[in-house]
Design a protein that fits this description.
This protein has about 500 residues and is an alpha/beta fold. It has 15 helices and 20 strands. It folds into two domains: about 280 residues, Aldehyde Dehydrogenase, Chain A, domain 1 (3-Layer(aba) Sandwich); about 180 residues, Aldehyde Dehydrogenase, Chain A, domain 2 (3-Layer(aba) Sandwich), CATH 3.40.309.10. Helices cover about 40% and strands about 20% of the residues. Bound molecules: NADP nicotinamide-adenine-dinucleotide phosphate and magnesium ion.
Length: about 500
């Protein structure tokens, strides 16, 4: 088990108590409190981080307000703003090894995956969004006013930033989720207070340093690590915050909506899922079998869009299940910093207990594990990649988001029934279809109630495409041009000539 060399900069970063970023300064919490973040491959303390609460959120919102209302930020040309956002992407790539190491140590994911996926996707999101700064055009029109005959009019719309945005992100892709939130917010000219997840604050705090280095003015980006119930709740409820953007559980998403009601701030939500992944016998099985496995096992199943309900047409069921089970068994589970690791530990003790409780529940309910099914007997939060069969539609492992490497499979035979079964969930984030019949693929793409439908692929997150959910999977879309809607206000200007 060769261990990837630890970047000395990372050792230095984790050795010191990490302060929070407010108004361009790195400061301790007003309370002086800190919390611990852990390495999930050992369960040992990795670093101590300033614990922000309501008072710090208040200070950060004031700094953001000042930066938005009075600072140089609003006076930059869109081109200047876009170039600063682009520079953040450049700096991420210049520090790719360091950021990938921090991500691996704090979250548990394999270093090779962080380096190949999380880091370049984060940079690319800033690069993509930077181009929109100069393209936030309005439209002009000649309205008619029926009760003013003969009058002449000129009207146009303007796209303006929403103002101060609160952003609350989860721990599954710490840096990438920060990028999804910050990229569009900054390109549209907003100021931000960002709360990273308590489990994984480190890469986001390092990103804060790079954001200052890129030349984003002080106070435009404030980062307040802390707990959801204190710092997160204060941010969602704050009367001076104009919008809150949240990614995480559907349960907390509902709390965010309630908290936002005080000043009716805008809300965008990217929540959970229990996505169907459908394999037809005519699929290219060389792709479909590993594809079906990794639709769940990628990022250890800690993906909101994970394809965790596998539907296979009856005639191919046994072969696909055998293939996916073999694939699961072939995955090397180990510490993220080991070179041969395919799957790291779950992010935290809490998630480990949650996922193993589902494995227990699945067994009690009568589901059968044909791969995995247990935790690894070693320190750290390791769970075997698991494939369950003999599932029933009312089982908790079939209905509820597990957020771990647990895939459940069922056969289907009736194509007409398939869409109904696939859509039988309160969620609607993603879906997958594996077939070589393009007509069938597009018909299903239309029938599936999901924000993203993958055909012959899964877990692809290009900056150009919108991402978000139907039903209880959320409100609004991230990425693509669609995200600009949620970070701008549209103003109508109407002139009588
Ligand atoms: P979570 O509680 O929804 O956490 C997401 C973010 O919300 C974190 O920054 C969290 O802070 C914050 N938060 C928690 N309670 C809050 C509140 N009352 N007000 C404002 N912010 C609050 O998710 P989790 O507990 O880490 O994971 C639980 C389950 O959520 C997972 O098993 C999974 O099913 C789902 N989940 C979904 C996604 C996704 O991408 N859709 C991501 C993560 C988790 P703290 O970290 O300090 O609690
Ligand atoms: Mg951690």
């Amino acid at each position: 088990m060769a261990i990837v060399e630890l970047d000395p900069l990372v050792r230095e970063f984790t050795a010191k108590e990490r302060p929070m970023l407010i108004g361009g300064e790195w400061v301790p919490a007003m309370s002086g409190n800190t919390f611990e973040t852990y390495d999930p491959s050992t369960g040992e303390v990795l670093a101590h981080v300033a614990e922000g609460d309501k008072a710090d959120i208040d200070r950060a919102v004031k700094a953001a307000r000042r930066a938005f209302d009075e600072g140089p930020w609003g006076k930059l040309t869109p081109s200047e703003r876009g170039r600063l956002v682009h520079r953040i992407g450049d700096l991420i790539m210049e520090h790719a090894d360091e950021l990938a190491t921090l991500e691996t140590l704090d979250n548990g994911k394999p270093f090779a995956v962080a380096k190949a996926a999380d880091i370049p996707l984060s940079a690319d999101l800033f690069w993509y969004m930077s181009g929109w700064a100069t393209k936030l055009d309005g439209r002009t029109t000649e309205p008619h006013v029926p009760y003013k005959p003969g009058s002449e009019w000129h009207a146009y719309t303007r796209r303006e930033p929403v103002g101060v945005v609160g952003q609350i992100i989860p721990w599954n892709f710490p840096l990438l989720m920060a990028a999804w939130k910050l990229g569009p917010a900054l390109s549209c000219g907003n100021a931000v207070v960002l709360k990273p997840a308590e489990q994984t604050p480190l890469s986001v705090l390092r990103l804060g340093e790079l954001i200052l280095e890129a030349g984003i003015p002080p106070g435009v980006v404030n980062i307040v690590p802390g707990y959801g119930e204190t710092a997160g709740a204060a941010l969602a409820a704050h009367p001076d915050v104009d919008k809150v953007a949240f990614t995480g559980s559907t349960e907390v998403g509902k709390l965010i909506v309630e908290a936002a009601a005080g000043n009716l701030k805008k809300v965008s939500l990217e929540l959970g899922g229990k996505s169907p992944n459908i394999v037809f016998p005519d699929a290219d099985m060389e792709k479909a079998i590993p594809g079906a496995a990794m639709a769940t096992f990628f990022n250890h199943g800690q993906c909101c869009i994970a394809g965790t309900r596998l539907f296979v047409q009856k005639s191919a069921f046994d072969d696909v299940v055998a293939g996916v089970a073999d694939h699961a068994k072939s995955l090397k589970v180990g510490p993220g910093m080991a070179e041969d690791t395919d799957m790291g530990p779950l992010v935290s003790k809490e998630q480990f207990e949650r996922v193993t409780a589902y494995l227990q529940k699945g067994a009690t309910e009568g589901a059968r594990a044909v791969a995995g099914g247990r935790a690894l007997e070693r320190p750290g939060y390791f769970v075997e990649p698991t494939l369950l069969v003999d599932t029933e539609p009312d089982m908790s492992i079939w209905r509820e988001e597990i957020f771990g490497p647990v895939l459940a499979a069922t056969p289907f035979d009736d194509l007409d029934e398939l869409a109904r079964q696939a859509n039988d969930t309160p969620y609607g984030l993603g879906a997958g279809v594996w077939t070589q019949d393009i007509s069938k693929a597009h018909k299903l793409a239309k029938l599936l109630k999901a924000g993203t439908v993958y055909v012959n692929t899964y877990n692809i997150f290009p900056a150009e495409m919108p991402f978000g959910g139907y039903k209880e999977s959320g409100w609004g879309r991230e990425m693509g041009p669609e995200v600009l809607e949620s970070y701008t206000e549209t103003k109508s200007v109407i002139c009588e000539l």
